[in-house]
Amino acid sequence: MKILYAIILTIVVANSMAQNGSIKGKVVTHDGHPAPYVNILLKEENKGSLTENDGTYFMKNITPGSYTLAISFVGLQTQEKMLVVSPGQTTEADFILYENAQQLSEVVVIGTRGLNEKSVTLGKINIDPMDLPQSVMVIDKSVLESQQALRMSDVLMNTNGVYVMGATGGTQEELAGRGFSYGSNNTFKNGVRFNNGVMPEMSSLERVEVMKGSNAILFGNVAAGGVINLVTKKPKFEKGGELSMRVGSYDFYKPSLDVYGGVDNNNHVAYRVNTSYEKARSFRDNVKGERIYFNPSFLVKAGKKTEILLEADYLKDNRTLDYGTGAVDYEIADIPRSRFLGASWSYYKAEQKSATLTVTHQLSSAWQLRATTSYQGFISDAYGTTRPNAGSPVETSGKWIRGLQRSGTDQNYYLAQVDATAKFKTGAMEHALLLGADIDKYETTSTSYLYKNSVANPQFNNGNVYDSINIYDLDLYTQRQDIPEIALNSITKNPVKRVGVYIQDLIAISEKVKVLAGVRYSYIDSKSTVYAFKNGELVPGTPSTTYPDAFTPRFGLVYEPVKSTSIFASYANSFDVNTGTDNTGNALAPSFIDQFEIGLKNQLFNDLLSANITVYQIVNSNLAQTILQSSPDYNVAIPNARELAGEVTSKGLEVDIMSKAYHGVSIIAGYSYNDTRYTESNIYEENSRLRYNPNHTANLSIYYTFQQSLLNGFNFGFTSFYVGDRVAGRSTRLTVPNDTYKLMSVPDYFQFDASVGYSKKNISARIKVSNVMNHLSYNVHDDNSVNPIAPRLVSATIAYKW
Length: 802
Hints:
Layout lengths: L1 H15 L4 E9 L9 E4 L4 E4 L5 E7 L2 E8 L6 E7 L4 E3 L2 E3 L3 H4 L31 E5 H7 L4 H4 L6 E5 L7 E4 L2 E3 L4 E3 L2 E2 L11 E8 L3 H4 L6 E7 L7 E9 L3 E11 L6 E13 L6 E14 L4 E14 L7 E2 L2 E2 L14 E16 L4 E19 L13 E4 L1 E23 L2 E22 L16 E4 L16 E22 L4 E22 L2 E4 L3 E3 L2 E14 L2 E12 L14 E14 L4 E18 L15 E18 L5 E16 L15 E10 L8 E10 L2 E4 L13 E4 L2 E12 L2 E8 L7 E4 L3 E4 L4 E9 L1
Parallel strand pairs: 1-7, 1-8, 13-16
Antiparallel strand pairs: 1-4, 2-3, 2-5, 5-6, 9-15, 10-11, 11-12, 13-14, 15-16, 17-18, 17-48, 18-19, 19-20, 20-21, 21-24, 22-23, 24-25, 25-27, 26-29, 27-28, 28-30, 30-31, 31-32, 31-33, 31-34, 34-35, 35-36, 36-37, 37-38, 38-39, 39-40, 40-41, 41-44, 42-43, 44-45, 45-48, 46-47
C-alpha cells in the first residue's frame, strides 16, 4: 500500500506543476443527430481524438495557449475554429456537419482509443472511463484479429486478474476473477446473460469488455469478482464482408464468413451475417471436436429517433468428454500430456440458441430510452466414464476402476429490461443518470441417471462399474468399447424468477470532483423440486422455495487533479443466494459481500499511453457454513442446518498498461496480485487458500506494423502470459476426524505466442505459433479433472475482404 501511495503522490505532484486545460464539445449533423467517430485535431499540437457515439469529445492535458481546432470526416470539407485554452479551465467548441445521419452511416471511420477512452456498453450508460470509479478493460477487434483469438483463454491473455480457473471435461473454460468464480450469471453477450457451459464463439466478436469488481447494482446477484461481456459485430449499411480459412495442427480447419450491407437504397434496414464451421482432432489421444455457428443480425432505423436491433445466434458443439490425465493421492499423475483416460465413445453435446431485440429511442437531446427483450435456450448431454477420483480413487499402482456418469441440462432463459439514461445540469453540477428495471426467468431441468442395475459387473459388488484401466500402462487391461444403456433416475426442476430496479447518478460537482452513487433492489423467487422415477413414473418430492431480496448500494468518489489523472475510491455491495435452511427450518438468508477499491488512472504522453493501478479488498463476512454439533445453535432435528458465520477475504493489486499505435507499435501489459483465503471458518482450516486462484498473473503483448518501407504490409506480434501457482484438490475439513482431503499444488506456467502477417489490398494472411516454448501446466478441478494446457501449436489464416 505504501508503494501505491508513493506512486500516486509522485504522479499527482508532477502533473500538478503544469495546470493544463482541456477542450470539450459536441459534433452534430444539421438535422440534430449526434455525429460519432468524427476526427478532432488540435493542429498546433498534432493531437487528435474521435467523437463518441453521442457526438461528444473531450481533449485533456492541453498546454495553455491559442490553438486551431479542426474537424474532418470522409467526404466532407474540414472545418476549423480558433480558440484559447486557459490554465485549469475547459474550453467548449461545438460543430455542425452539413450531412444527415443516414449519409454519415454510409462511411466507415477507423480510429484508435486508449484504455481510458473506451466506454463499456455493459455499463448501460456512456461514462468516460476516467470518471468511472472502477477498473475496466476492453479488448477490441484489432487485438482479436492480430492475436487470432480462438477461445476466451486467448482473449484473457491480454487481461490481468481475470483468468481460466478450470476446464472440466475439456468442454468449457471456467473463468474467475479476483478470487471469485464467473458462473453464467457473470457472463454476458450483448448485455444479456448467456450460459457458459459451452465455449463461446470468437469469430463473430467486435470486442470483449471486462468490468472488474462488484456489478450487483447493474445485474443483481453476480459474483463479486467481475463480469465479462462479448459484443458481436453489428449491421452496416455499406456493403462488404470477409471470407477466411484457418488451418492448424491436429487437422484443425475453420472456414468463416462475414457479410453485411443495406437491404434498401434508403438506408432504413441493414443486415449482418456471421457464420463459421470448425472441426479438429486434439493433442489428446482419441479426442476430437466439431462445431457450427450462425449469427444473423438486423438494424432498422424507424424514423430519426428510433433504432431497432435484432440479434440472434446458434451454436452446436459436439466433442469428446475428457477429464484429463488424473491425479494420485492429490498429486498430478506423471503420464504423457496426450494420454486419454476415458472411454473411447465418451461425448459432450451442447446446443445454444438466442434472440435479442433492442429498441433505442431518443426522447430528447438529454434523455434516451432503451428496451431489451431476450431469449436463450441451452441443452447439453454429457455421457462417459466417471472422472478419475470422483468415484473410485486412482490407486498408487495406477489402477483405476472406471464407473459411468451421465448428466443432462435443458434451460430456457427470458429477459425483459428497460433503461432510461440522461445527461443534464442542475445549476453548476452535471449529471449522468441511469434509471432501470429488469425481470428475468430461468427454467432449468437437470437429469440424473441410475447405473446400478444396468451396468452391473459380476466381478464387483459395486453397481456402477464399467471396467478397469491402469493410467501408467493402458495395455495392462482390455478396455470395454460398448455404450451401456442406463436408466433415468431423477429430474430436478429449478425455476428462478428475478426482479430488479435500480438508480445511479454520476454527479460532476466540479471539473475535478465527481461522485457516483446508486442503489439496486433485487427480489428472487427460487424453487427446486426433485422428481424421482418410480415404477416408470415421475413422482415429485417436497419442493423447496426461497424468496431472498437485497439492497445493493454503490458509492464512488473521483478526483482529477489534472485532466490526465484520475484518482478514485469506491465501495460496492453484492450478494450470493444461499441454499439450505437455518436452525429453525427457514430458508437461509443471502450472503452479502463488501468491496472496497482505490485506484489511479493516467493518460500519459499526450494520451498515447494509459497506465492504471488498482488495489482492492473483497470480504464475504457472512459465508454460509454448516452448524457444528458442538455449537449452542445446533438443532438435532435439522442436522444439516447452516449459519452465516464464515468469512472469505480477497485482496489484491492490479496494474494495466495500454498504448495507442505509435509508428506502428502498440503495447498491452499488466500485472495482478491476488490473495483469497478463508479468514474465518469452522469447516475449513483458517487462512487456507481458496482453490484455483493464482497469486500472480502478468501479461505483455507487442504488435508492430511496418509503415512506409519495402516491408509495407507486413506485421508481427507476440503475446506472453504468466499464471502463478495455484491449489486444487479439496480443502481440509476440520469437522471430519482424520480427514483425508488435501489441497494439491498446480504448477505455474509461462505461455509465449508469436505471429506474423501480411496484407495487401483485399488479401491478408497470418501465421501463428502458440505456446512457443511448449511449457506444461494444468487446469484442475478438485482432483478429478486434470486437464493439461495445449502444447506448441501452429495455425495459418488467409482472408479476403471486400
